[in-house]
Known about the structure:
Radius of gyration: 19 Å
Number of strands: 12
Shape: globular
Helix content: 25-40%
Distance between the termini: 16 Å
Number of helices: 11
Order of helices and strands: EHEHHEHEHHHEEEHEHEHEHEE
Amino acid sequence: xxxxxxxxxxxxxxxxxxxxxxxxxxxxxxxxxxxxxxxxxxxxxxxxxxxxxxxxxxxxxxxxxxxxxxxxxxxxxxxxxxxxxxxxxxxxxxxxxxxxxxxxxxxxxxxxxxxxxxxxxxxxxxxxxxxxxxxxxxxxxxxxxxxxxxxxxxxxxxxxxxxxxxxxxxxxxxxxxxxxxxxxxxxxxxxxxxxxxxxxxxxxxxxxxxxxxxxxxxxxxxxxxxxxxxxxxxxxxxxxxxxxxxxxxxxxxxxxxxxxxxxxxxxxxxxxxxxxxxxxxxxxxxxxxxxxxxxxxxxxxxxxxxxxxxxxxxxxxxxxxxxxxxxxxxxxxxxxxxxxxxxxxxxxx
Length: 349
Protein backbone atom coordinates (compact mmCIF):
# COMPACT_ATOMS: atom_id res chain seq x y z
CA UNK A 1 0.00 0.00 0.00
CA UNK A 2 1.24 3.48 -0.84
CA UNK A 3 2.73 5.37 2.11
CA UNK A 4 0.87 8.53 3.19
CA UNK A 5 1.83 10.82 6.07
CA UNK A 6 0.66 13.90 7.91
CA UNK A 7 3.46 16.39 7.31
CA UNK A 8 2.04 19.55 8.91
CA UNK A 9 -0.60 20.51 11.46
CA UNK A 10 -1.95 23.88 12.52
CA UNK A 11 -4.85 25.17 14.58
CA UNK A 12 -6.36 28.41 15.75
CA UNK A 13 -6.44 29.73 19.29
CA UNK A 14 -9.80 28.36 20.40
CA UNK A 15 -12.18 30.92 21.90
CA UNK A 16 -15.54 30.89 23.64
CA UNK A 17 -16.80 33.50 21.19
CA UNK A 18 -15.17 34.65 17.95
CA UNK A 19 -17.97 37.01 16.96
CA UNK A 20 -15.49 39.55 15.62
CA UNK A 21 -14.13 37.15 12.99
CA UNK A 22 -15.86 35.23 10.20
CA UNK A 23 -15.15 31.60 9.35
CA UNK A 24 -12.84 32.76 6.55
CA UNK A 25 -10.91 35.10 8.85
CA UNK A 26 -10.60 32.29 11.40
CA UNK A 27 -9.36 29.83 8.77
CA UNK A 28 -6.87 31.87 6.77
CA UNK A 29 -4.06 32.09 9.38
CA UNK A 30 -4.32 28.34 9.97
CA UNK A 31 -4.16 27.52 6.26
CA UNK A 32 -1.22 29.85 5.77
CA UNK A 33 0.53 28.24 8.74
CA UNK A 34 0.42 24.65 7.43
CA UNK A 35 1.52 25.71 3.95
CA UNK A 36 4.44 27.67 5.38
CA UNK A 37 5.47 24.66 7.46
CA UNK A 38 5.89 22.63 4.28
CA UNK A 39 7.04 25.37 1.93
CA UNK A 40 4.16 24.57 -0.40
CA UNK A 41 2.09 27.08 -2.33
CA UNK A 42 -1.60 26.67 -3.11
CA UNK A 43 -0.74 25.54 -6.65
CA UNK A 44 1.28 22.62 -5.21
CA UNK A 45 -1.71 21.05 -3.44
CA UNK A 46 -3.23 18.20 -5.42
CA UNK A 47 -6.49 17.84 -3.47
CA UNK A 48 -8.37 19.90 -0.89
CA UNK A 49 -11.04 18.52 1.45
CA UNK A 50 -12.93 20.21 4.28
CA UNK A 51 -15.27 19.28 7.11
CA UNK A 52 -17.92 21.53 8.63
CA UNK A 53 -21.65 21.75 9.37
CA UNK A 54 -24.26 23.97 7.79
CA UNK A 55 -26.36 23.58 10.94
CA UNK A 56 -23.76 25.42 13.00
CA UNK A 57 -23.43 28.19 10.43
CA UNK A 58 -27.19 28.49 10.00
CA UNK A 59 -27.09 28.62 6.21
CA UNK A 60 -26.98 26.13 3.36
CA UNK A 61 -23.69 25.42 1.56
CA UNK A 62 -21.80 27.55 4.07
CA UNK A 63 -18.57 25.70 3.27
CA UNK A 64 -18.43 27.40 -0.14
CA UNK A 65 -17.87 30.73 1.60
CA UNK A 66 -15.02 29.23 3.63
CA UNK A 67 -13.29 28.35 0.36
CA UNK A 68 -12.41 32.03 0.10
CA UNK A 69 -9.76 31.26 2.71
CA UNK A 70 -8.15 28.73 0.35
CA UNK A 71 -8.06 31.19 -2.54
CA UNK A 72 -9.84 31.63 -5.83
CA UNK A 73 -6.76 30.94 -7.95
CA UNK A 74 -5.47 28.58 -9.16
CA UNK A 75 -8.51 26.29 -9.64
CA UNK A 76 -8.44 23.37 -7.23
CA UNK A 77 -9.70 19.81 -6.92
CA UNK A 78 -11.98 20.13 -3.90
CA UNK A 79 -14.44 18.13 -1.80
CA UNK A 80 -16.39 18.60 1.42
CA UNK A 81 -17.90 16.34 4.07
CA UNK A 82 -20.70 17.36 6.42
CA UNK A 83 -18.74 15.75 9.24
CA UNK A 84 -15.84 16.34 11.53
CA UNK A 85 -12.65 17.09 9.62
CA UNK A 86 -11.25 13.68 10.59
CA UNK A 87 -13.57 12.21 7.96
CA UNK A 88 -12.32 14.77 5.44
CA UNK A 89 -8.82 13.49 6.21
CA UNK A 90 -10.05 9.96 5.52
CA UNK A 91 -11.30 11.02 2.06
CA UNK A 92 -8.02 12.78 1.29
CA UNK A 93 -6.05 9.73 2.49
CA UNK A 94 -7.96 7.50 0.06
CA UNK A 95 -7.33 10.02 -2.72
CA UNK A 96 -3.59 9.83 -2.14
CA UNK A 97 -3.64 6.03 -1.82
CA UNK A 98 -5.15 5.77 -5.30
CA UNK A 99 -2.35 7.89 -6.74
CA UNK A 100 -4.67 10.66 -7.91
CA UNK A 101 -2.71 13.24 -5.90
CA UNK A 102 0.66 13.60 -4.19
CA UNK A 103 -0.41 16.18 -1.59
CA UNK A 104 -3.66 17.15 0.11
CA UNK A 105 -4.84 20.03 2.28
CA UNK A 106 -7.48 19.09 4.87
CA UNK A 107 -9.19 21.64 7.06
CA UNK A 108 -12.16 21.90 9.40
CA UNK A 109 -13.83 24.62 11.40
CA UNK A 110 -16.77 25.24 13.65
CA UNK A 111 -18.37 28.23 15.33
CA UNK A 112 -20.68 27.06 18.10
CA UNK A 113 -21.00 30.45 19.80
CA UNK A 114 -23.75 32.00 17.63
CA UNK A 115 -26.43 29.46 18.62
CA UNK A 116 -27.35 26.80 21.17
CA UNK A 117 -25.08 23.91 20.23
CA UNK A 118 -26.92 21.52 22.55
CA UNK A 119 -30.10 22.05 20.54
CA UNK A 120 -28.30 22.03 17.19
CA UNK A 121 -26.83 18.59 17.88
CA UNK A 122 -30.31 17.09 18.37
CA UNK A 123 -30.53 17.17 14.56
CA UNK A 124 -28.16 14.18 14.54
CA UNK A 125 -30.84 12.02 16.12
CA UNK A 126 -33.35 9.69 14.55
CA UNK A 127 -35.92 12.12 13.09
CA UNK A 128 -38.99 10.00 13.87
CA UNK A 129 -38.60 8.78 17.44
CA UNK A 130 -35.73 10.58 19.19
CA UNK A 131 -35.41 14.05 17.68
CA UNK A 132 -39.02 15.08 18.43
CA UNK A 133 -38.25 14.57 22.14
CA UNK A 134 -35.36 17.11 21.92
CA UNK A 135 -32.90 15.25 24.17
CA UNK A 136 -29.76 17.38 23.99
CA UNK A 137 -26.16 16.18 23.75
CA UNK A 138 -25.41 16.67 27.46
CA UNK A 139 -28.54 14.80 28.57
CA UNK A 140 -27.66 11.85 26.31
CA UNK A 141 -24.07 11.82 27.58
CA UNK A 142 -25.46 11.81 31.13
CA UNK A 143 -27.49 8.69 30.30
CA UNK A 144 -24.29 7.05 29.12
CA UNK A 145 -22.43 8.16 32.26
CA UNK A 146 -25.17 6.80 34.50
CA UNK A 147 -25.11 3.48 32.65
CA UNK A 148 -21.35 3.25 33.34
CA UNK A 149 -21.85 4.05 37.01
CA UNK A 150 -24.69 1.53 37.34
CA UNK A 151 -22.45 -1.11 35.75
CA UNK A 152 -19.71 -0.38 38.30
CA UNK A 153 -17.25 0.78 35.63
CA UNK A 154 -16.70 4.28 37.05
CA UNK A 155 -17.99 6.79 39.58
CA UNK A 156 -18.20 10.57 39.89
CA UNK A 157 -14.86 10.80 41.66
CA UNK A 158 -13.09 8.92 38.86
CA UNK A 159 -14.75 11.15 36.26
CA UNK A 160 -13.54 14.23 38.14
CA UNK A 161 -10.02 12.77 38.01
CA UNK A 162 -10.21 12.53 34.21
CA UNK A 163 -11.29 16.17 34.00
CA UNK A 164 -8.46 17.28 36.28
CA UNK A 165 -5.84 15.35 34.32
CA UNK A 166 -7.05 16.74 31.01
CA UNK A 167 -7.13 20.38 32.13
CA UNK A 168 -3.70 20.04 33.74
CA UNK A 169 -2.27 18.64 30.48
CA UNK A 170 -3.82 21.59 28.60
CA UNK A 171 -1.61 24.01 30.54
CA UNK A 172 1.17 23.27 28.03
CA UNK A 173 -1.16 23.74 25.04
CA UNK A 174 -1.16 27.40 23.94
CA UNK A 175 -4.22 26.86 21.76
CA UNK A 176 -6.47 25.31 24.44
CA UNK A 177 -9.62 27.12 25.48
CA UNK A 178 -9.58 25.85 29.09
CA UNK A 179 -6.45 25.27 31.17
CA UNK A 180 -5.58 24.57 34.77
CA UNK A 181 -7.71 23.19 37.59
CA UNK A 182 -11.11 21.87 36.56
CA UNK A 183 -13.78 22.86 39.07
CA UNK A 184 -16.22 20.04 39.66
CA UNK A 185 -19.12 22.50 39.68
CA UNK A 186 -22.75 21.67 40.16
CA UNK A 187 -24.49 18.90 38.26
CA UNK A 188 -25.22 20.12 34.74
CA UNK A 189 -27.22 16.97 34.04
CA UNK A 190 -26.69 14.36 36.75
CA UNK A 191 -24.33 12.57 37.11
CA UNK A 192 -22.30 14.92 34.87
CA UNK A 193 -20.95 18.08 36.44
CA UNK A 194 -19.69 21.16 34.64
CA UNK A 195 -16.10 19.85 34.69
CA UNK A 196 -17.19 16.62 33.00
CA UNK A 197 -18.44 18.46 29.92
CA UNK A 198 -16.60 20.12 27.02
CA UNK A 199 -16.36 23.87 26.56
CA UNK A 200 -18.46 25.55 23.90
CA UNK A 201 -16.20 27.43 21.54
CA UNK A 202 -15.02 28.33 18.08
CA UNK A 203 -11.95 27.11 16.25
CA UNK A 204 -10.31 25.71 13.14
CA UNK A 205 -7.59 23.22 12.25
CA UNK A 206 -5.75 22.02 9.16
CA UNK A 207 -3.28 19.34 8.13
CA UNK A 208 -1.25 18.64 5.01
CA UNK A 209 -0.92 15.07 3.76
CA UNK A 210 1.77 13.86 1.39
CA UNK A 211 2.73 10.54 -0.17
CA UNK A 212 6.03 8.66 -0.16
CA UNK A 213 9.18 10.60 -0.92
CA UNK A 214 7.20 13.82 -1.18
CA UNK A 215 6.42 13.50 2.52
CA UNK A 216 10.08 12.89 3.35
CA UNK A 217 11.03 15.98 1.39
CA UNK A 218 8.49 18.21 3.14
CA UNK A 219 9.35 17.34 6.76
CA UNK A 220 12.20 15.73 8.66
CA UNK A 221 9.94 13.28 10.50
CA UNK A 222 6.65 12.43 8.76
CA UNK A 223 3.79 10.96 10.80
CA UNK A 224 2.99 7.95 8.63
CA UNK A 225 -0.62 6.77 8.60
CA UNK A 226 -0.17 3.04 9.11
CA UNK A 227 -3.88 2.33 9.38
CA UNK A 228 -7.17 4.24 9.28
CA UNK A 229 -10.71 2.96 9.62
CA UNK A 230 -14.13 4.18 10.71
CA UNK A 231 -17.28 2.36 11.83
CA UNK A 232 -20.77 3.24 13.04
CA UNK A 233 -23.14 2.05 15.77
CA UNK A 234 -26.88 1.56 15.34
CA UNK A 235 -28.71 4.87 15.03
CA UNK A 236 -31.31 3.94 17.66
CA UNK A 237 -29.85 4.47 21.14
CA UNK A 238 -32.26 1.96 22.66
CA UNK A 239 -30.64 -1.00 20.89
CA UNK A 240 -27.09 -0.10 21.95
CA UNK A 241 -25.08 -0.93 25.07
CA UNK A 242 -23.95 2.56 26.02
CA UNK A 243 -21.18 1.21 28.25
CA UNK A 244 -19.31 -0.24 25.26
CA UNK A 245 -18.20 0.88 21.80
CA UNK A 246 -17.91 -2.08 19.42
CA UNK A 247 -17.44 0.27 16.45
CA UNK A 248 -14.36 1.84 18.06
CA UNK A 249 -12.92 -1.59 18.82
CA UNK A 250 -13.54 -2.80 15.25
CA UNK A 251 -12.09 0.36 13.70
CA UNK A 252 -9.00 0.02 15.89
CA UNK A 253 -8.61 -3.62 14.93
CA UNK A 254 -8.90 -2.85 11.21
CA UNK A 255 -6.44 0.05 11.57
CA UNK A 256 -3.87 -2.25 13.20
CA UNK A 257 -3.94 -0.55 16.59
CA UNK A 258 -3.66 -3.83 18.48
CA UNK A 259 -0.72 -5.17 16.44
CA UNK A 260 1.83 -3.48 18.73
CA UNK A 261 1.69 -1.06 21.66
CA UNK A 262 1.20 2.68 21.23
CA UNK A 263 2.85 5.29 23.43
CA UNK A 264 0.32 8.09 22.89
CA UNK A 265 -3.46 8.18 22.46
CA UNK A 266 -5.41 11.27 21.45
CA UNK A 267 -9.03 10.34 22.18
CA UNK A 268 -11.96 12.46 21.06
CA UNK A 269 -13.95 12.19 24.29
CA UNK A 270 -16.00 15.37 24.79
CA UNK A 271 -17.31 13.99 28.11
CA UNK A 272 -15.28 12.35 30.86
CA UNK A 273 -17.54 9.30 30.80
CA UNK A 274 -16.79 8.77 27.11
CA UNK A 275 -13.08 8.45 27.85
CA UNK A 276 -13.95 5.52 30.12
CA UNK A 277 -15.77 3.80 27.24
CA UNK A 278 -12.97 4.49 24.76
CA UNK A 279 -10.18 3.34 27.04
CA UNK A 280 -11.95 0.01 27.51
CA UNK A 281 -12.69 -0.41 23.79
CA UNK A 282 -9.10 0.45 22.83
CA UNK A 283 -7.52 -1.69 25.58
CA UNK A 284 -5.91 1.33 27.25
CA UNK A 285 -7.38 0.82 30.71
CA UNK A 286 -4.77 -1.55 32.17
CA UNK A 287 -3.63 -0.34 35.64
CA UNK A 288 0.04 -0.50 34.57
CA UNK A 289 -0.49 1.24 31.22
CA UNK A 290 2.14 3.84 30.33
CA UNK A 291 0.23 5.27 27.35
CA UNK A 292 -0.08 9.06 27.50
CA UNK A 293 -3.77 9.79 27.01
CA UNK A 294 -4.69 13.22 25.64
CA UNK A 295 -1.41 15.00 26.46
CA UNK A 296 -2.87 18.02 24.62
CA UNK A 297 -5.79 18.24 27.04
CA UNK A 298 -8.24 16.65 24.62
CA UNK A 299 -11.78 17.73 23.89
CA UNK A 300 -12.38 18.59 27.56
CA UNK A 301 -10.05 21.55 27.03
CA UNK A 302 -10.82 22.38 23.39
CA UNK A 303 -13.90 21.20 21.52
CA UNK A 304 -14.72 23.15 18.36
CA UNK A 305 -17.52 21.07 16.85
CA UNK A 306 -16.51 19.64 13.46
CA UNK A 307 -12.80 20.30 14.07
CA UNK A 308 -12.10 18.53 17.40
CA UNK A 309 -11.63 15.10 15.77
CA UNK A 310 -9.19 16.43 13.18
CA UNK A 311 -7.31 18.12 16.02
CA UNK A 312 -6.85 14.73 17.70
CA UNK A 313 -5.12 13.40 14.57
CA UNK A 314 -3.12 16.59 14.24
CA UNK A 315 -1.99 16.57 17.87
CA UNK A 316 -0.89 12.93 17.60
CA UNK A 317 1.00 13.70 14.39
CA UNK A 318 2.64 16.77 15.92
CA UNK A 319 4.06 14.70 18.77
CA UNK A 320 5.62 12.37 16.19
CA UNK A 321 6.99 15.36 14.25
CA UNK A 322 8.66 16.62 17.45
CA UNK A 323 10.09 13.20 18.31
CA UNK A 324 7.93 12.90 21.44
CA UNK A 325 6.12 9.81 20.15
CA UNK A 326 7.00 6.85 17.95
CA UNK A 327 3.61 5.17 17.58
CA UNK A 328 0.40 7.03 18.35
CA UNK A 329 -3.30 6.29 18.18
CA UNK A 330 -5.79 9.00 17.25
CA UNK A 331 -9.56 8.75 17.57
CA UNK A 332 -12.44 10.91 16.35
CA UNK A 333 -16.15 10.61 17.00
CA UNK A 334 -19.39 12.08 15.74
CA UNK A 335 -23.00 11.70 16.79
CA UNK A 336 -24.61 11.04 20.18
CA UNK A 337 -22.93 8.74 22.70
CA UNK A 338 -19.99 7.81 20.45
CA UNK A 339 -22.19 6.77 17.53
CA UNK A 340 -19.55 7.05 14.78
CA UNK A 341 -15.88 6.38 15.43
CA UNK A 342 -12.68 6.73 13.43
CA UNK A 343 -9.31 5.35 14.52
CA UNK A 344 -5.90 6.06 13.01
CA UNK A 345 -2.48 4.65 13.83
CA UNK A 346 0.47 6.96 13.19
CA UNK A 347 4.16 6.12 13.29
CA UNK A 348 7.47 7.92 12.90
CA UNK A 349 10.24 6.68 10.64
